[in-house]
Amino acid sequence: MNKDTIYSFYKSHKGEVNGAIIGLLIAISVLMIGLLKFIFIVICMAVGYYIGKVISVDKDYLRKLLDKIFPPGTIR
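The chain above was modelled as a monomer; its predicted structure follows.
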C-alpha cells in the first residue's frame, strides 16, 4: 500500500477511521487506569471545556462567578 491509497481510503472513510481510533484510545485508557478514574477524567474534561467555552464568550464570567462565591469586591 502506498500513501495515495491510504490517503484516499481515509478521505472516503474519515468518520469511521476517526471513530475507530477514538474507540481504541478510550478502550486502552479504561484498561490501563480503570473505569472510575476514566469517568472522573472525562467529567473533569467536560467541566473544563464548558468553563472555557463560557469564558471565551463572556470575558467577565469568572469574575462574576467568584463574586457570587466570595463577598463582592474581594477578588480584583
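The chain has two domains: 1-33, 34-76.
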